[in-house]
Write a structure and sequence with these properties.
The chain has about 400 residues and is mainly beta. The protein contains 3 helices and 27 strands. The strands form 4 sheets. Strands 10, 12, 13, 14, 15, 18, 23, 24, 25 and 27 form a 10-stranded mixed beta sheet that branches. Strands 11, 16, 17, 19, 20, 21, 22 and 26 form an 8-stranded antiparallel beta sheet that branches. Strands 2-9-7-4-5 form a 5-stranded mixed beta sheet, with no helix packed on it. The longest helix has 19 residues, at about 5-20.
Length: about 400
Amino acid sequence: MNCKIIACLFFCSLLFACSKGSDTTTPPITPAATIPVVTIIGTNQPITAANTTMQFYVNLDKSTTKDVSVDYSLVDGTAVSPKDYVASSGTLTIPAGKAQATIDVQIKGDPSNLRRANVQFTAQLSKPQSCTLGTATATGIILTEDGTYLPTDNTGYSTPLSYPGYNLVWSDEFSAANLDLNSWNQELGNGSGGWGNNELEYYTNSLKNVFLSNGNLVIEARKEAVGGFNYSSGRMTTQNKKTFKFGRIDIRAKLPVSKGMWPALWMLGANINSAGWPACGETDIMELVGTYPARVSATLHWKDGAGAHASKGANYSSTNGDFSQQFHVFSVVWAKDIMKFYVDDNLYLTVNASDAGATYPFNADQFFIFNVAVGGDWPGPPDASTQFPQRMFVDYVRVFQ
């Protein structure tokens, strides 16, 4: 055999033997276990008369076989320690096999249950051990907006508890703990197209919107989503509970005056369900459109002889600031065939039966309606200048006959 051929065969056999004797395939590498991610979740807590505990939940995205720790601190915002809560700091440990722990925070009680804007503070995480930071900050909100104590400056005009020739036949001084449901109804919803006015609020019977405090009825309008609307408020009536015909009516109130607000103190004929509007008669003792904060209106509405809506009204302008700055008394002196309207005992509108003719409806029983509308055809919607909540305070309603 040729020597070159023999040498070549020998070399190839060596290569084959070497290739069989060693495995050149790269072995699989097992990836190192990833460390967990820690996050903190925001929370809220209603304030109560006594101290309570708020809990922030701190979560891992997976449990591990070893303890995990993270430092935390609580930082003032609109909530201030130690007035609103007790600030603290420390190290939080999540034991092996667990994926959650809590940071407990003492929330200071408020025996007065003062209604004010919600306040908040921040919980911050830092210095993770055996974990990495995901969401490292969270907000704790102390819910104070639903408190039932809301003092207000009581200065302003006032009227007496008696008049010559009159007896006080009914009043509500709003000095009880809760609204008198033997006298008042609380209407719900938005009516038919905002009670025909394209109002933007949803009326509720919640203490958020209607409550008594410090001797006043408070009707509060809020910017919040309720019932498919973007605002909530209160509307109350004495229909089928308290109706009146003739006498003197005094209502002492302080009003919201911002753009888009429409507070009203008014009456409707007790026969509205049978006669309909405006044939039943509507007596607007006071309406304010927020575009004109120093002006109120009084108006009578009725159905004329041709079956059309008719009205007569007048405006009264304050010479001493707007109607949110102090209390004013809105009055009507009501006798057969005549109604006279006053602000702080200043007469500014008189309507006689002759103004309406044979269809004059105001010699019959009427019931009260108090409400704060948001938006509607007359005031238009709120704008960026309108700060919520908006409130109407009513000190008293009195009927003398």
